[in-house]
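[Q] Does anyone have a clean structure-token version of this?
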Amino acid sequence: MSLLTSNSELRPHHIWNWSIPALRATLLDGSHVNTCPSAGACARVCYARNGTYLFSNVLAAHTRNLQMTLDSTWPAVMIAELQHRRYRPKGTARIMPLPLHELDFWCWHWADAGGAAVRIHDSGDFYTADYLDDWLTIARATPDVLFYAYTKEIVMMRAAADRAPENFRWLYSTGGTQDHLIDPDLDRHADVFPDEQAIADAGYTSQDVSDLLAILLPTTRIGIPANNIKHFNRLIAGRRFSEMQPHRQMPR
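[A] Here you go.
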């Protein structure tokens, strides 16, 4: 059984994903883990706490993943998983969602070789610094795979930035308690908007064509159109996620 999964949106772009439960989880021994320590307003409209993510089999699989990360041997297990041919470079260039000349040297080489990508956390976040370090270890051991993550753990990521290999990329996502630390001009970040027009009006660039654009576009301002979920739409009320976080909105 593969440790990584994919879906209809990610599969065409040769992206695999790793998920743990969103926001909080209960382990086999009854203990609780806060899997999104810096979640803020986003918790009320979190896509990963809706729909199929709530199916018992899906939640059980994500909880197993979380349980696995508590074992010190788990990075070795993931590194072994990534040796499977499904994650190996294809040997033929990827079809990319943007011109190759807009990529940095490492990403150009990765795309030309047909490398795989792993999105860390379709749900969940880096819940401890040790867990983040495990992912950095995995990335260093598999240098031909592109790893990327959206995260609200800004302080944690800044502390680890000097240790991150070049195949490990990240961007900050808004709606968390650390939004006020994001410098929109310097920090690659994603904000969720009501629709594509709102993204363009705010001077952001949408990643809707391919999730890879979130970490490849030559801009710090990434826009994500909100999922069309009625009860979430009522809560969002035409706002961006950064506008929903009380008292500490991200500077413009």
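[Q] Thanks! Anything notable?
[A] Residues 193 and 240 are 5 Å apart (CA to CA).
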